[in-house]
Amino acid sequence: MLSALWNLTLAAAAVAVAAVFQLGLIAPGDAFFLAVAIVLVFTGQQLIAREDMGLAAAAHSLVTQPESYRSRLGYLSYVACLALGTLVAVQVAALAV
């Protein structure tokens, strides 16, 4: 239950950062920092959950093996955070050019 709440909280934070950035209510640098921080925290949490695997196997299982998650919600939350974090990072990089 706590894991599901944590997953939903991180996914909601990623959605909020992306939405606030799209609306222009946050500076691009701040949006980039927040989006990357959310992805790093979520990735760290998932790697810790796979501490019995080697680092390469754990990193590979994050995206390619949805059955390695406790629930489908965890996998979907992680993929959503990755997608939104990537969207914000690419948009901020495009603004910097």
Enumerate the spans where pLDDT stays under 50 for 5 or more consecutive residues.
none
**Fraction of helical residues:** over 70%
**Backbone structural class:** mainly alpha
Using only C-alpha atoms, the radius of gyration works out to: 14 Å
Report on the biggest sheet: none
Sheet-strand content, in percent, reads: under 5%
What does this structure look like?
With about 100 residues, the protein is mostly helical. It contains 4 helices and no strands. It has helices at about 1-20, 30-50, 55-65, 70-95. Helix 1 (about 1-20) packs antiparallel against helix 2, helix 1 (about 1-20) runs parallel beside helix 4 (about 70-95) and helix 2 (about 30-50) packs antiparallel against helix 4. The radius of gyration is 14 Å and the shape is globular.
Summarize the structure.
This protein is mostly helical and 97 residues long.
Which features characterize this protein?
97 residues; mainly alpha
Helices and strands, with pairings:
Layout lengths: L1 H21 L5 H22 L5 H10 L7 H25 L1
Helix pairs in contact: 1-2, 1-4, 2-4
